[in-house]
Amino acid sequence: MSILEIPYYKMTHNYLDLNCDVGEGVGNEKQLLPLLSSCNIACGGHTGNKESMTEVVSLAKENNVLVGAHPSYPDISNFGRISIKMGPKELINSIGNQVEGLVEVLDEQGVKLHHIKPHGALYNDIAKDESLAVCFLEAIKKYKKDTCLYVPYNSEIAKVALKEGFQIKYEGFADRNYEVDLSLVSRKQPNALITDKIQVLKHIVEIVDHKRVTTIGGKEVSILVDTFCIHGDTPSALEIVLYLTQELPNHNMYIKK
């Protein structure tokens, strides 16, 4: 069969949005951002301040990387990775102030806010708790028209957001293992992270090609993913992203730029 006879669908490419949590004190943004298509900037809840936000926004602008806000429970001491009890008004004000702080920096540099992605325990909690999801959406409703949300597939936050007319993108984690309910394996467990670059690639290819993920117990579960995250504080983050840049094209996949 000649190339002209190959059906068109076999010649199309998958363009992947690869995002990374940045501005978290690791200091690898100069190396990572040229390789990414979007980023999530810490905006004061779990870490981050105006200086760090300004620096990362400048790098994102320079490298044509889409910028998102990465708000958290206001809990710097635990890096936003522990659930804390907050009243609805207190939580709404905290999230709103964090996003607004980043938007002020973006406005100074003429950059648009592309998306919002909650961090850590907040991300996990609003994925399961409808009432918390409603609070989170109330906090960011002023950005509803012009931004999208990065949220887990089939989560409570995704369902409520769609019902209320928010734009969403389903997020998958390239460097994290999954439980059977599609929650992430707890970071308290030794197998929570995937640090081997070959395994990360295998993880992504399975999700993209087969719309499924193999969970930590070996069960295959259906999943949809529009954007893949590599955590900036994963020890081998830069090595993983460099490897993906080189190897994804061999699987007919390319990082959007």
Word description of this protein:
The protein is of the alpha/beta class and 257 residues long. It has a domain at 16-175 and 226-244: TIM Barrel (Alpha-Beta Barrel), CATH 3.20.20. 35% of the residues lie in helices and 19% in strands. The chain has eight helices and ten strands. The protein has helices at residues 29-32, 50-62, 88-109, 120-128, 130-139, 156-163, 197-210, 237-247, and strands at 14-22, 38-42, 66-70, 113-116, 148-152, 167-173, 212-214, 220-222, 227-231, 253-255. A seven-stranded parallel β-barrel has the order 1-2-3-4-5-6-9, surrounded by four helices. Strands 7-8 form a two-stranded antiparallel ribbon. Helix 6 (156-163) links the parallel strand 5 and strand 6 (167-173). It starts with 13 loop residues before the first strand and ends with a strand. Residues 1-11 have low confidence and may be disordered.
Short description:
It is built from eight helices and ten strands. By secondary structure, the chain is α/β, with parallel strands linked by helices. It has a domain at 16-175 and 226-244: Glycoside hydrolase/deacetylase (TIM Barrel, Alpha-Beta Barrel), CATH 3.20.20.370.
Number of strands: 10
* Spans where pLDDT lies below 50 across 5 or more residues: 1-11
What is the percentage of strand-forming residues?
15-25%
- Binned, the helix content reads 25-40%
Kindly report the name of the CATH homologous superfamily of the domain at 16-175 and 226-244. Answer: Glycoside hydrolase/deacetylase
Q: Quick one: biggest sheet?
A: 7 strands, parallel, barrel
- What is the CATH third-level topology name of the domain at 16-175 and 226-244? TIM Barrel
Which strand order spans the largest sheet, edge to edge or round the barrel? 1-2-3-4-5-6-9
Approximate shape:
globular
What is the end-to-end distance? 33 Å
Supply the CATH architecture of the domain at 16-175 and 226-244.
Alpha-Beta Barrel
At the first level of CATH, what is the class of the domain at 16-175 and 226-244?
A: Alpha Beta
Question: Measured on Cα atoms, how large is the radius of gyration?
Answer: 18 Å
> How many H/I helical runs?
8
